[in-house]
Amino acid sequence: MDFSTIDKIMLSEFTIFADYPELRAVTVAGKAFESNSTRYNDPGNGKNDVLSKPELRFYNNINLPAECLAKIRQVHGNSVKVVFEPGSFGESDGMITRKKNTYLRIVTADCLPLFFYDPVSCSIGLAHAGWRGLKANIAGKVTRQMQSSFKTKPMDLLVAVGPFIRDCCYSVKDDVASLFSAGFAKPAKNGKYMVNLGEIVMNQLTDSGIRRKNVEISKECTYCHDERFSSARRDGKRSGRNISLIGLVHNN
Ligand SMILES: [Zn+2]
Predict the structure, then answer these.
(1) Prediction pTM value
(2) How many A from CA of 169 to the centre of ligand 1?
(3) Class of domain 2-248 as given by CATH
(4) Engineering a disulfide at 83: which of 97, 136, 176, 199 sits with its beta carbon 3.0 to 4.6 angstroms away?
(5) Where are the domains of the chain?
């Protein structure tokens, strides 16, 4: 993963997509949306498909019209929408499209943003996965939806996982840890477990037929990097949101 900034805004980009200039895929660190007047970006009373003013300003700064966005109201499920144009697509946790100049957008604060690109059928996907989404295997669901909608072959798929809460900080009780194979949860203090969400999703992706070498998992932990990323576990109700975007560039 490479890091760059636009107007001091921290962006996480992905090495695995570097050879594809037709693709834009980025996680924008949530701290970018803070200002002196608003410490955190306001996702709109839990309506995470509503854009805050700082987020709108960001799109203006990078010349990405907000009218080009495809948004969903994330609900920790595994429903995936097939999108043919920008707009708001209701409650869901994933989108796929082949339409150029339609930028899929999700928000996260510790959950995993999952980016999919099939350079053969020229199609993309984006999903939001916390432990509930992983338990419901949204990664496999996106893969199957791309197979049925775009004839994507899993072996052609490139997948990037943006910054999320890593196993240095993600401690859960037995009720959540027991949902996943023992190999993904290491016993920790106070009867809790440190769960490796990255390895869980890697396993699901390879089970779906995606090659391990075609998956890039961010090493950045949202909880550790206070200065950069929003983290719901760290900041609680006042937490902002990191924004993930993927789109196919329109060439005239
Ligand atoms: Zn950490």
Answers:
(1) 0.94
(2) 4
(3) alpha beta
(4) 97
(5) 2-248
